[in-house]
Design brief:
The two termini are 35 Å apart. It is globular, with a radius of gyration of 23 Å. By secondary structure, the protein is mainly alpha-helical. It is built from 15 helices and 6 strands. The protein has a 4-stranded mixed beta sheet. It binds protoporphyrin IX containing FE.
């Protein structure tokens, strides 16, 4: 049955013709939906309407429209599709998937206090120390570079959030959280949410039922999430017998602020819960994204040796060819090319290719098109990164394209949100809260790797400069 609604005589945005009942399921590779959405962008334009069962999906393929809707009309476009916050998967705690609400504002305030532009420089020692560990690990066992990237990303975020030092291998807490993240990345997508919303009965299938893997995943997740939230939190929490003993961390600092602000026990409990939940969300949001970006960096370096040579020449010109010291934060302003390499890495293959879906609170009209209330709104970063007017030869890795725009001033005043590629961090009231931390971690890793190593393709590995043939994993992050 077709939904009947009053579109106020405005048409829906253009899009592929839907099949009866199921909508636009044909032609979408469920693991790589950004490819189909980008194709639709070429065919139908900057804003595309599609339908999955009865779920309206609006795909934004250009930065222009994303800024118009998600920034300028953020009052209407800042919530999340309800299917993403399924209580069966215990996601109702996660900042990333919360609807726009007081709880979300509290989470974002907690993040902002720790991660705003002026505050993040306090994490630099942790980031540089972990970058040095990263190059030591890469030297010892380069073949497991992926594990080392992962250790780098997770160790930084665990130190920052909880002052928790992860074990060099097989950390028991990380094993739990990784299992939980594996499930999240697989399940928390608008396409899956639309199917589950259409057939709530699916949630009731017995776990042994063939194809009911997400029911089994939900059961595992319900066991994991309380552990993931409580274990590191207790580590960062002050010993109640000896107040003020916890080492500095986002969590302990936030907890210390509570008594100053409120004497009310109920309010204090809400704040404490907010701190616990937002910090648990921070780990998930930070680890995969930073690790994946380092994979893209590595891919670029082996496919573009001339970029690598230019980047290394810049480093040599700053720290000296004899390598008497490793680069440090004070060198960053003198390394515009390294900064451009980081920008281009974020652009070349955005690791959150479709961002995290937003949703509309009310009906809207935009450039004559009707956008329904409750629509899932996807900002297609993949397509924005391939805008041929802004990025000629967009499939090529060309750091030089950022050189006129890269900000080289002292980094405490450097706001990546104002940069060319800010779209990879999302939009409006939901823009990534960890973007300043992410950028700094990437600098620490990239500059140290390039100082110490030459990165080359393994013999016999033949991938062209467009990285065609590279297999991108499916999910929220790739
Ligand atoms: C290269 C690294 C990263 C990339 C590409 C990235 C990208 C994104 C994107 C696209 C979103 C969705 C924005 C939107 O809805 O419009 C997001 C949200 C978020 N990110 Fe990041 N992120 C990165 C690193 C981090 C780090 C290091 C943290 C640290 C805590 C973090 C924390 C978050 C949180 C909490 C949200 C949810 C915000 C909300 O829903 O209001 N991210 N990120």
């Amino acid at each position: 049955l077709q939904k009947k609604r009053d579109t106020k005589k405005h048409p829906l945005p253009p899009g592929p013709p839907p099949l009866p009942f199921v909508g636009n399921v044909i032609g979408i590779d469920p693991d790589h939906p950004w490819l189909a959405y980008t194709r639709w962008g070429t065919e139908y334009g900057e804003i595309v309407y599609s339908r999955l069962f009865s779920q309206d999906i609006v795909i934004i393929n250009s930065e222009r429209v994303a800024h118009d809707l998600l920034d300028r009309r953020s009052h209407n476009y800042s919530t999340r599709p309800p299917g993403l916050t399924s209580p069966s998967f215990c996601h109702d705690y996660s900042t990333v998937f919360l609807p726009y609400s007081d709880k979300l504002r509290l989470h974002r305030r907690i993040f902002h206090e720790a991660f705003h532009l002026e505050a993040v420089s306090s994490f630099r020692p942790v980031q540089m120390r972990n970058a040095h560990n990263l190059i030591r690990n890469l030297l010892a066992s380069p073949e497991v570079y992926g594990t080392h990237f992962h250790t780098f990303s997770t160790s930084i975020i665990m130190s920052i959030l909880y002052d928790y030092s992860t074990a060099p291998v097989d950390d028991p807490f990380l094993a739990l959280i990784e299992r939980s993240l594996e499930i999240d990345v697989k399940v928390l997508r608008p396409e899956v949410a639309a199917v589950i919303a259409e057939f709530p009965i699916l949630k009731k299938l017995p776990p042994w039922f063939p194809g009911a893997s997400f029911v089994r995943d939900a059961i595992v997740q319900r066991t994991l999430v309380p552990m993931i939230m409580d274990m590191p939190f207790e580590h960062a929490h002050d010993d109640p017998q000896a107040a003020g003993t916890a080492a500095p961390s986002v969590v302990s600092d936030a907890l210390k602020r509570i008594p100053v602000k409120t004497q009310d026990e109920g309010e204090a409990a809400v704040l404490e819960k907010g701190i616990k939940e937002s910090s648990a969300s921070g780990y998930a949001a930070a680890s995969e994204t930073t690790t994946s970006t380092l994979y893209v960096f590595l891919l670029a370096m082996v496919l573009y040796p001339e970029v690598q040579i230019r980047a290394q020449a810049e480093i040599d010109s700053v720290v000296g060819e004899t390598l008497e010291r490793l680069p440090d934060w004070g060198d960053r302003a003198s390394m515009p090319y390294i900064n451009a390499v980081i920008q281009e890495t974020l652009r070349w293959f955005p690791v959150v290719p479709l961002g995290i879906a937003h949703a509309t609170v009310n009906d809207d009209i935009y450039e004559g098109y009707y956008i329904p209330k409750g629509a899932t709104v996807i900002a297609n970063a993949w397509s924005m990164a391939r805008n041929p007017d802004k990025y000629p030869n967009s499939t090529r890795f060309i750091p030089e394209r950022h050189m006129s725009k890269v900000v080289v001033e002292e980094l405490s005043t450097h706001d990546p949100a104002s940069d060319d590629i800010s779209f990879v961090f999302g939009f409006g009231r939901r823009i990534c809260v960890g973007r300043h931390v992410a950028e700094a971690s990437l600098f620490a890793a990239v500059v140290n790797i390039l100082t110490v190593f030459r990165l080359e393709c393994a013999p016999g590995w033949n991938v062209g400069p467009d990285a065609e043939g590279v297999k991108w994993t499916g999910g929220l992050t790739t």
